[in-house]
Structures
1.
Amino acid sequence: MVTDDAGQGGTAAGQDNYAGHQDGAGHGMVQLITPAGERVSHPEYDLWVKDVSDEQLCSLYEDLVVIRRIDKEATALQRQGELGLWPPLLGQEASQVGSVRSLRDDDFIFPSYRENGVAYCRGVDLADILRVWRGAASGGWDPYTVNMAIPQIVIGAQTLHATGYAMGIQNDGADSAAIVYFGDGATSEGDVNEAMVFAASFQVPLVFFCQNNQWAISEPVRLQSHTQLVDRGAGFGIPSMRVDGNDVLAVMAATRVALDRARRGGGPTFIEAVTYRMGPHTTADDPTRYRDPNELEDWAAKDPIGRVHALLDRKGLFTEEFEAGVRAKADAVARELRAGCTGMPDPEPLDVFKHVYSTPNSWLDRQQDHYSRYLASFGDPAGATQEEGAR
Amino acid sequence: MTQMTFARAINSGLRRSLDNDPKVLLMGEDIGTLGGVFRVTDGLQKDFGKHRVVDTPLAESGIVGTAVGLAYRGYRPVVEIQFDGFVYPAFDQIVSQVAKMHYRSRGAVKMPITIRIPFGGGIGSPEHHSESPEAYFAHTAGLRVVTPASPQDAHTMIQQAISCDDPVVFFEPKRRYHDKGEVDESLDPDSAPPMGQARVVTDGSDVTLVAYGPLVKTARDAATAAADEGVSVEVIDLRSLAPVDFATVEASVRKTGRLVITHEAGQSGGLGAEVAASITERCFYHLETAPVRITGFDVPYPYSKVEMHHLPNLDRILDGVDRALGRPNSLSGLEG
């Protein structure tokens, strides 16, 4: 059985100063696939992924590759002026795939803005993933169709939403769980700390999934915390674990441990997935102003996709046919993403008034009426027809 | 009809909402075992259980933020912020989450959250216990802001707020908690006047006096005193601060030609400014004189030994009525 102090990990327990953990490698961190693609055994966590077949491993690989392709295509779309902004997730593919693929359909996801790989795996329509970044809406999809909330931009605010949602699950007597994604910077936010207080006090079925990608825009994680982030969870009495976030199997094992605890009424779990943001914070950022290129090189050697590739190779599964199939899938997804982006209809002028309230509002109705008249004063029939449609 | 206090009337309304909808739940600090520091939720946890009347950790953002998650799950949370001055830690969750989630999700996610806030001064408390922060919320798109002024309205409007699919910030005039009034508990909230509608409290023909929350009683007393001097004051209780029912105010001003607005909150950028501007836009040619604002000052809520100077009272309101009528008043002879 996995114990509550799983944060100490199956490898050497991390007792040293947090600054010593900046490389994120090996110190009290669960790892099942080494960067070289070697499958290492672990007395506890192996049990949680023993059902992962070769076929599933291939499918995990495919998701990792497709997500990287989505990320690349979206970055290109931004550079070409089709998106206003894009927050790349390059380097964090394993953290996202390993966690989301551990969930059931009736579990509910609360993402930040960088979980676009999670959204893809959850089945969110490709165009919907880009809708916000194209400026065509403030939220891309109906959360209830995929049981995944729309992305949260205010850092850490969604941890409280997830906690409340999990309180609701508990009240309903359901055995599903909620999972919330946030980053290393978010752990400094009051909301994240309040969420851990509430989640621990009420013992709600929730997974705090922290992707420690080492950087909050230009601020390194050591500015956020004097201890390992995993210790923050433990400080609230929340069972906490630290896993190699670039290892899709380790992430999957940890998430399954956490979900199992949640479903059995054992309350929340904190997972620190140690990974690295290989790209900029967003396409508007320039990491060369604050980041040592050597650090990037070190992390490139721990690439989440490369190690699964190597593992599949060792197993004799990485055939030319397989590789071609994955590439074809990634290209097809990229084409669909691009088409969905450029083919997205622009919102209408009076859409600006839509959905502010779900009940009539005299202030807003008057403003909409006046603006409709203003538009109509140009003799624009579009303005006139919109008047009736919008509300 | 039953005689009951303002606080009891809210309690009774909350009880009805809990009874009628299993998705309604109450959250806040000290609201369960203690029954709230003002006893507004007295006895509810005992009757509805700890999962429906939830004593929360002491964290306002946490209370509102978890309510957002519960609403996401289909619940209808009613949260209590213990005092007006303690709402600010929750400001981000209210302004950026509660208010905007429906817009952000293009209508997919409803936020039927009621945020109860005891507000206003006159109770001799230290700092942070007597504030009037309503303008912040009235200025925020996506929120509705209401405040009852009588036990009957408190009873009805809390139920209307809870059943509203939009988030409602519900300001309770705390210095009126112990005032008694007749309450018809059998009144169906759906057939009662909607919470968005202003109410003419006292008919009059010379001056329109607009008030809300704790000052409605003061305004009514001022109207009585003015009547003794032969001045007929029409008192309007706004009830809803966002949106304001300008149609009711406008109809009154078209009749009286004079407008006085009073509130405890500081003057600049307050509700009085919005009412004055909107009414001026709507019926400028019916106004005989400029609108008059009798409000708290633009100061931090003062210590209790001087709070009576900050709070509009009957005499200051009557001075404003005199100004609106062009009669001698404290500012006679001053330009502008």
2.
Amino acid sequence: MTIQFLLIQVFNGLVNGAFYALLSLGLAVIFGMLRIVNFAHGALYMLGAFTAFALGQLLHLGFWPSLIIAPVIVGVVGMLIERGLLKRLYGLDASYNLLLTFGLTLLTQDLVKQVMLSKFAVSSAPYTPPDSLSGVVNLGFTMFPKYRLFVIGLALVICLITWFVIEKTRVGAIIRASTENPGVTRAFGIDVSKWVTGVFGVGVGLAGLAGVMAAPIYSVDPYMGAELIITTFAVVVIGGLGSIMGSIITGFAVGVLAAIGAALYPPIANTLVFILMAIVLLVRPSGLFGLPEGTR
Amino acid sequence: MKKVNLLLATLSLCGATLAGAQSLSLADDGVKLGVLTDMSGVYSEMTGPGSVKAAQMAADDFMKSHKEFTGKVSVVGVDHNNKADVASNKAAEMIDRQHVDVLLDIPTSSAALAASEVGKNKKIPVIIVSGGTTALTNEKCNKYTFHYAYDNYMLANGTGTTVTKKGGNSWYIIYPNYAFGQDLNRQMTAAITENGGKIVGSDATPFPNTDFSSYLLKVQAAKPKIFGTMQAGNDLVNVVKQYNEFGLKKQGIGLSTGLLGEQEISSLGQDAFAGAIATVPWFWNLDARSRVWALQYKKLYGKLPTYMQAGVYSASMTYLNAVSRARSDSGEAVVKALEGYKFSDFFARNAMVRPQDHRVILDVYTVQVKPKSAAKEEQDYFQRLQTIPAAKAFTPLTESKCKM
């Protein structure tokens, strides 16, 4: 194994890491504030990709407008879900949320599949990156697709902005306060439930954004989120639920480790993440960056 | 076309005269074709409802040319969800309750093997068109199972041999890590090395999988002349998409595929696959005769047929002709009529049902995907490179592991 080989795979791993980071970031934000394990996150990621595809087909919108519009649409869908459905379950056991979001996943997948088959006559569809980002660049040690470099960059920027907003601004302070202790926050005259809807929308919008970014790399497929979401949950467990920076760092790190693992020993590609998860659970049950439940 | 019709009419007249000699005996007073297929999953576009339609078309055409069967041939289509246990239950149900006389199509190797077992126990012919495993005519062969259209040996042997002989003599292969992929990789490797080629690397990838970049970067570093992907369906679409994204084609690394169907090309776009080499048993614009049939199919059902759907038509017709020759639809009699039968139709050329292992051998074609700019019409995907004669296209009998 040469340094060059390692460098190539690190770069490559950052791409998958970017998707893990964006998705687990959304999950972390949602869990932190709502205590909801959003199983529909993968389906909403897929919805983002599908929306971009549909916007292109129906309105001839290219990648750039879709990159903004599709996540907004997904975010709005998320807010409707929160207002219409999730809100009713807040007082109940967490497993109700899990069942509901799982059901929503199945529903969304089949709905998209039906629309794709009946409206566009395909079961999965290609989506091309914009011309300005197609082709490869010579990085010196390897040829690498331009678009993938863009994915790494954009994901990093979005992650850092989210982190900054939550950790360093007044809006973030309210969100954090609502997370820590909704009761006391309400006592300060802040309408926590409104913020809850907004946060859910943004968290889900991040998944939609990841979906649009994934569309040119993978084919747009009704089940594209199903596989990814499982890995993402493992990432969240490794990083520790509710930690923003933790999700970002873990997302990228797991992507890199999985890529190196897959290149060195292909059969381990799909299991490596779960081996890591098992080790972390044994050594640090609350995750690498999470605080133990009692200290919250 | 008129001449053909005249010929058909004469033939059926002969049939009618012969029929007088021995009366027709059909259980339940009819022949029922059972299409066991994937109605809504990953293979539903290449088989599925289109296969059921193909069988229906065969039934209609057969009844037109065989008046004594008028109103007596029907078709049912059943979904097996690509699962072996479902396939097994449904196959039994179709035979026991719906009284089908033959099972057809059956994509997904494990489902095909399961249905084949049911057919054996119930003495009902099973003609597999869309399942690929060579086990059907080797270790798992039985008296009632027939394998039509293609199989893994034919795909690997055709593509591996042709590409290696054309100078593509160093390969990097990736294959999905389950029965189908392992089998295909083994057969492909054998075909390449036998023809003097060299495997510079091979990786087993998870199945299903969406991200193949780690493997593609290894391929890029290994610089083989040919990148061979044994993935199928949606996985194949992703591999090829990323093969283009990483610019491997521009770096002089050619693409060869294991199982390539029309659907993958439609879904990713013709140019993404341009230059790729594969082996197929048939394609719709192979020649005038194929085209006539394919356009007829399109006229009736709105879509051009895949080779699997065309295969289901041909297999249905071959089965019905055997019923007509046997004057009976009992499994035993039809099997006897099929064994050793030689025929040629729009789909199967120079075909024969090998009595020893029930492999239906036929001419197959090594093809190269044309760039979009060279396409003259809708779905004009393939440029024929070579015809592999029936006798050479499939596992030689000397290597067969079938004991019937």
